[in-house]
Amino acid sequence: MFIRNNRRSKLVSALLGAVIVVIPTSVIILYIVYNMNIYKHKLNEYGMGESMTASVYMAKSDMVKGEKVSASNVERVNFRIPVGVTFPACDDVDGMVMSQDIKAGSIITKSMGHDDEGIRDDFRLHGFTGIDIGSGINVGNYIDIRIAMPDGEDFIVAAHKEVIGLNEGIVVVQVNEPEILKMSSVAVDVGKYEGARLYATMYAADYQSEAIPDYPANMEVCQLGNWDPNVIDKVFTIEVMDKRKNLESNLLQYIKE
Hints:
Elements: H1 2-45, E1 51-59, E2 74-82, E3 96-98, E4 113-115, E5 124-128, E6 142-148, E7 154-162, E8 165-167, E9 170-175, H2 177-192, E10 197-202, H3 219-227, H4 238-250
Antiparallel strand pairs: 1-2, 3-4, 5-9, 6-7, 6-10, 8-9
C-alpha cells in the first residue's frame, strides 16, 4: 500500500510539474502570436505587410541638370516596394530633361525632370527693367513676375520664367508675344497708379508646376492682342476685358495726379 501511494504521489507531482511548465509556456506562446498578429496588422495598415515588384528606370551614370535622358544613360530594373505604397517613378522617360543633378544608381522619379517640348516660334529673349528682384534670386532660378496693386490686389503677369541674365537691374527672361504685351501694360500701370509695384518671386525648386498668370492687361493691349498676328494663343478674351474694367474701377482713387 505504501509503495502504491508513493507512486501515486510521484505521478501527481510529475503532472503538477508539467502543468506548471506548460501553462506559462502556453501563455508566452499565446502572447507572441498575439503580438505577431498586431505587428502584421500594423504593417498591413501602413502598406508594408506584403511587397510587389515595380518596374522603374534607374540612372546608369551620373546626370546633370539640363541633360536629356537617353537609352544609353538609363536602364529598366525591377524594384520591390510594399503593397499600397505609391512610388512616383516614371513610366516613360523618353524626351525627359533633368531638372537636377542625380547620381548613378538613382531611381528616376517624375519630380526629377520635365518634358522637352522645344522652343516655340514666338519665344524671345527680353530684358526688363523696373522689376524688384530679391537678393536671393540669381541667374538660373525660376521666377514669377507679379504686380502688386495699391488696393491689395496682386496678379501674376508671367509665370515660371528662368532668369537668363541679371545685370544692373535688367532681368533677361524668355517670353512669348502675349507676355511681352502684358509687360507693356504693367509698365503703364506702375506709372499710372500710386503704389503699384512690379516684383519677382522665386520657385522653391525649378521642377515645380508653373503658376497660372491672371493679370488682366489694359484695354488697349487687349485690343492689340486680338489682332496681333504674332499672338499664337488667344489670351485677351472678353472675360479678361471684363476683369480689367473691374480692376480699373477699384483703382480710381489711386490714379496719380
